[in-house]
Amino acid sequence: MTEERVKCWVNICVKKDNQVLLLDRQHDNFKGWIQPGGKVEFAETVFSAALRELKEETGLTALNLELKGISGFINPAIPERYVYYDFLCTDFEGQVLNQSAEGTPKWWSIDVLDTIPMQDDIRNRLPLYWRKGSFERVHYWDEEHHCIGRTETKLFGED
């Protein structure tokens, strides 16, 4: 079967020591703390999209970007795929914005991430960014029940 639609996005996990920069997203149906990121524009590379989204949403300029994994959703019924390129950024310059269109940026200690409101997918994916090695995490959409039917996570390299 040939895929009819592929939509590409980037996620950037900005990590400094034991802290992660997240955005307090309070609009649409995707509320809670999220990492910076967004859509890859037509003809834009995924690295360029990650640099652009990070700057727009946080004010930071990435000095390094490491592609840590690929995640997303597959809807076999359509067929449609959402691909998320997951980047880790540990070296950056600039000042964090007080506010952005996507939400207020804030540094959070990794130790408290389980206590703040965020989507389960983000909560479960964040630790994959700072482990050694790469990952692939795919959710398969159940069109009949309008929910995730199953999730597969594969880890590559060291734990």
UniProtKB/TrEMBL annotation:
<dbReference type="Pfam" id="PF00293">
    <property type="entry name" value="NUDIX"/>
</dbReference>
<dbReference type="GO" id="GO:0035539">
    <property type="term" value="F:8-oxo-7,8-dihydrodeoxyguanosine triphosphate pyrophosphatase activity"/>
</dbReference>
<comment type="similarity">
    <text>Belongs to the Nudix hydrolase family.</text>
</comment>
<feature type="domain" description="Nudix hydrolase">
    <location>
        <begin position="3"/>
        <end position="132"/>
    </location>
</feature>
<dbReference type="InterPro" id="IPR020084">
    <property type="entry name" value="NUDIX_hydrolase_CS"/>
</dbReference>
<keyword id="KW-0378">Hydrolase</keyword>
<protein>
    <submittedName>
        <fullName>8-oxo-dGTP diphosphatase</fullName>
        <ecNumber>3.6.1.55</ecNumber>
    </submittedName>
</protein>
<dbReference type="InterPro" id="IPR020476">
    <property type="entry name" value="Nudix_hydrolase"/>
</dbReference>
<dbReference type="InterPro" id="IPR015797">
    <property type="entry name" value="NUDIX_hydrolase-like_dom_sf"/>
</dbReference>
<dbReference type="InterPro" id="IPR000086">
    <property type="entry name" value="NUDIX_hydrolase_dom"/>
</dbReference>
